[in-house]
Amino acid sequence: RNLLLADGELDDVVQSALAAAFASTRLITIAPLGAETAVSTPIYYYLGPAYHMIHAREESGLHQFSLLANDALLTLALQHRLSPILVGDADYPALELPMAQLELIGVAGLKQGRAVAQKQLMAAGATADVARALAATLAEASYTAVSLIDFEAGEAATQQLVLLHGAGQAWSVVRRSATDVAVQATALTAVEAQLADFIIERAASASG
User: N or C: which end of the chain has fewer CB within 10 A?
Assistant: First the structure.
């Protein structure tokens, strides 16, 4: 059931369902990193005890709320959102380097060409295959953050997966230290598995 927030009153059933969803203890967000656009704004997935709810903003500025009756529908909604981002399924080894260096390599590739970015990535320790594929992604890169938030467990329980995507391949960017990250080719199935664990944990804690 989809609702566009506008003037007027909601019926009691819908009001109760929305209130229950907003009171959920777990939340998944999918948000672009960087400037937001009308078609690339954060989407919030509230994991409720009876209903799940998606909260998104339309291009018109209206807020859209979609109520989902079960975990299967929530999984399909997440898959629909992530599948255009999580393209490619190459099995490349991880590359560890400072995040600042990765950003500088991306800028160098944009200004001086992919060959320059590829050379710099290989100097940072990437194999030739990784350097070639990652340089192509950096040439048209976008970043998306997938956050898994457990309000009951506090801030320490928040998990964030940063996805770098473009040129037919997605990469996870995992923080290793205050300065360094590991860049690893990833695919939809890997992220789906992580989301499924989070959803199952919510169901288990609710029943327990």
Answer: C
